Amino acid sequence: MLVGTLQIKCYAPYVHSLKEKRMIVKSITGKVKNKFNASVSEVGQQDIHQTIMIGVATIADSTAQCDSVLDHILDFVEEHCEAEMIEVIREIR
Q1: DSSP state, 51?
Q2: In sequence order, what are the residues at sequence separation of 6 or more whose Cβ sits closer than 8 angstroms to the Cβ of residue 33?
Q3: Global pTM exceeds 0.70
Q4: Are 6 and 87 in contact (CB under 8 A)?
């Protein structure tokens, strides 16, 4: 059993309140949870309006499968999130 994790940091210069940020975070985390059956949460910088940090965790049988799922999640977030991805930390254990 392998656990794959992603930490995705995004920048949204158009966000001017925490309420706007929470709407974006709730939308993208819900979509990822439903589509990929992965654990997703906002993991940092929760009080900064324009920075979004999301953590994702998934379990797989092999490294190739884990890599594939993490790649699909990254592509999905990039397509469906209006914010710009500025940093991605990926780990498989």
Answers
A1: E
A2: 39, 40
A3: yes
A4: no
Which residue matches tokens 């254990």? Answer: 93
Reported as a single tens digit per residue, the pLDDT across 24-62 is: 999 999 999 999 999 999 998 888 889 999 999 999 999
pLDDT band at 9 (very low <50, low <70, confident <90, very high): very high
The two structure tokens encoding residue 52: 């979004």
CA distance 72 to 53: 18
63 contact partners, CB below 8 Å, separation of at least 6? 2, 92
What average pLDDT does range 69-77 have in this prediction?
Answer: 95
**C-alpha to C-alpha distance for 19 and 86, rounded to whole angstroms:** 22
Question: Which residue is listed with tokens 């706007």?
Answer: 20
In this structure, are residues 52 and 38 in contact, taking their beta carbons and an 8 Å threshold?
no
